[in-house]
Amino acid sequence: MVSHRLEMKIRNVRIFAIPAAMLVFVTAVIPLIVLATSVIDRADIFSIWTKSPVQRALVFSLWQALLSTVFTIFLGVIATWYLSRYQFLGRRTFIALVTVPFVLPTVAVGAAFIAVLPKSLHHSTLAIVLAHIFFNISIVVRTVGPRWNSIDDQLIDSARTLGASPLQTWRHVIMPLGKNAVFSATALTFFMCFTSYGIITILGGPGLATLDIEIYRRAVQLGDLSGATVLAIAQMLLIAIAFLLWSRSRSTELIAFRVQAVSHRRLSLAPKCFFLALAAFFTMPLLALVAASMRTSHSWSLKGWKVFLGIQNQRGIDFNMWQAIQTSGKYALIASCIALPTGIAATYALSNRRSSQSRLSALVILPLAISPVVVGLAILITYDFQPFDFRSSWLLIPVVHAAIALPFVMRSALPVVDGIPNDLRSAASTLGAGPWRRFFTVELPLLKPAISTGSAFSTAMSLGEFGATSFLTRRESRTIPIIIASLFGKAGEIPRTTGMVASLVLIVLTAMIVVTIDRKSHI
Amino acid sequence: MSLIIDNISFSYGDRPILSGLSLEVPTGTTTAVVAPSGSGKSTLLRIIAGLIAPSTGSIILDGKDLSRVPTHLRSIGMVFQDNQLFPHLNVYDNVMFGLRMAKTEKTIAAKRCRDLLDLVGLSSVAKQSVATLSGGESKRVALARALAPSPRLLLLDEPLTGLDSELHDRLAHDLQRILHATSTTALLVTHSLPEAEIISDSLHRLPTAVDSVQDGEKK
What we know:
The complex is a heterodimer.
Chain A: H1 2-11, H2 18-37, H3 42-47, H4 52-85, H5 91-99, H6 106-116, H7 125-149, H8 153-161, H9 166-194, H10 198-203, H11 211-222, H12 225-249, H13 269-292, E1 295-296, E2 299-300, H14 303-309, H15 321-350, H16 354-369, H17 372-382, H18 396-418, H19 422-430, H20 435-446, H21 448-464, H22 467-472, H23 480-489, H24 493-517
Helix pairs in contact in A: 2-15, 2-17, 2-18, 4-7, 4-9, 4-11, 6-7, 6-13, 6-23, 6-24, 7-9, 11-12, 12-17, 13-24, 14-24, 15-18, 15-21, 16-18, 18-21, 19-20, 21-24, 23-24
Chain B: E1 2-12, E2 15-26, E3 30-34, H1 41-49, E4 56-61, E5 64-65, E6 76-79, H2 91-101, H3 106-119, H4 135-147, E7 153-157, H5 165-181, E8 186-190, H6 193-199, E9 202-205, H7 209-218
Parallel strand pairs in B: 3-8, 3-9, 6-7, 7-8
Antiparallel strand pairs in B: 1-2, 1-4, 4-5
Helix pairs in contact in B: 2-3, 2-4, 3-4
C-alpha cells in the first residue's frame, strides 16, 4: 500500500518541475517584474522614442535581422534539403560543421569574422549579416532537417508517378511538409538576430547598433536606467507578442538534434559546388582566426600569445588569463550542475502529458526570445539593494547561465524522456523494482544521451554567454568573453591580436568540450 | 498498342536483381506477375515508372521507348505497397493531386475526383484527413488517386498486402471491378497466386533467372 502511494506520488511528478520553475522565477520572472515596475521615469515612455540613437537602433535592429533571416533561411533550406535527403562524402562532417557554430561563443565568432574580412568591411552590415548566417544556419538544419529526413522516399516517388515535376514536387509536397518547421526556424532566426548582442559588440560600430546595444549603452555608459528600462520592456513586449502570435498559429516544433541516415543518392555538380562554398564559409573564419592570432599588422609574431599567457606585459592590458579561464570553467561547471538536474527533472515532470506538451514547447522556446541583455539589466536593478544584494556574489552569474541553458537542456531531454515507453516502466515494476530503484536502474541509463547533450549544451552556453554577463561581471571575476570584448574595445593592435588569441582559445575550448561530452549526437 | 518490357536487367552493385526479363501487357487488360518476396518485383515496377534506370533493356509504351522520359511525363500511375498518401492533404485533395499537376480544368477535375471517390465508395470521407482512414480505406484512396489523372498504365505493387483476410478478399474483387470499369491497362505484382487470379486477366510467374541460379546454389 505504501509503495502504491509512493508510486502515485512519483507518477504525479509535477513537483519535479519546481526547482526549474524557481530558477526561472529568481533569474527572470522577479527581475523582469521589478524592471517593469521600478525605475521608469514616466516621461521616458514616450520621449525616449524621439531620441535619434534609439530610432537608429530600432531601424537597424529590424533591418539587419530581416536581411540576416532572409539569407540564413535561403541558404539553410538548400543545405538542409541535401543534408537530409542525400548521401555524400563528408555529409556527417558537414552536419557537424553546420550545427556546431550555434553553441560557439558569439564574441569569439565576431572576432573570427574580423580576422577573415578585409579591413574595410570590419564594421559593416555585411559582416554582421555574414556572422548571423554562420550562427543561425544550424537552426534551419536542426529544425527542418529531421522533418524532411523523415519523409519517405516513396512519398516523393508517388508524387512523381502522379505527374509532378521536380519543381511541382517541391511546391506541393516537400515545402508543405516542411512548412511549419521552416516557419519556426524563420521566427527563431529572426529573434536571435534581432536580439543579437555579442556579434554586434565586436562587428558593430557607429550607426550599427541594435536595440540591445543601445540598452547597454544607456544603462551602463549614460547611466540612463529609466530609458534603458523602457527600451528593454518595449523589446520584451514586442517579442512576446510576436511569439504568442506565432505559437498560436503554428504548432511549435521542437528543435531535434539528430539528422538520420538517408538512402543512397548522389549529389550532382551544382549542389557539390554549393557545399564546397558553404564549407569554405564555415572554415575560413576559423582558419583566419588562427592566422590572426599569430600576426601583427605587418609580420608574423607571437606577441598576442605572449601577452595572453602573461609572459609579456602590455600597457593597458590588466587581466590574468589563467584567472579568466578558471573563472569561465568554474561558472560553466556550476551552471551545468544546476541546469542539468533541474532541467531533466522538469522535463520528466512535464513529458508524456499531451495537454501540456505544446505549452511546454512554447515555454521552453520563450526564453530564447528574451534577450539576455534584458535579463542582465533586470537582475542588475533587482538585486542591487539590501537585503537582496546577490549581485555582489559571484554565484549569481553561473545561476543566470544555468537559467539561460535550461531551455536547451529541456529541449534535448524531451524527446529522450518521451521516448521511454510507459510499458518499460511497468515491466520494471512487475519485476519488483520500486519507483526509485526503477529510476536508477532503468530510466537513468536510458537518459544518458539526454544527459550528455544537456551538459554539452549548458557548458557551451555558459562559456560563451556574453549578454547577461556583461551586466553582472565584476573586475575580479571576468569571463573570457568579457575579456575578448574589452580587448576589441581597446585601440592598438596588440590588444586586438590578444583578443584573437583569446577568441581562438575560447572557440577551441568550447568545441572540444562539446565534442568530447557529446560525441554521438551532433548538437 | 501495349506495354512491352524488353530484356530488362538490373543489379544493385554486384547483386543481380533482374536479368533479361521480357513481358507484354496488352491494352485494357490486367496482367499479374506472381513471384516470391525479394525477387525484384518492386524493382521491376520502379523501372517501368522511371524511378530507377535499368542496367539494360527498354520499356516501350504504346510503341514509344520511355528510356529518356522522366517519371512525371510517363503517364504511368502507381499504387504503392504502403499507399504513400500525402499526410498534409485530405482525401479529396490526395485524389486531386495528379489532376492539379496536369493543370486539369477545375470543374472537370472536381467531377473526375467525385466520380472516382464514388467508384471506390469513399465519397463520405472526402474531407477527412488521411490519418483517420482504415487500412482498406487508405488503399482505396491510393487507387483513386492513381486513377484520377487517367494514366496510360497503372502499376500495382502488392496492393492487398497487410489487410486482414476478409477485407483482402473483398478488396480484391473491388479492385478487379474497378480496373474493368475504367478499362485500365494495369500491371500487378504480388506474391499471392489466389490474389492474382481474382484481379488479373492473365498471369506470369517470375522465377527469374537470378532466382533459379541462387536456388540452385542453395540446393
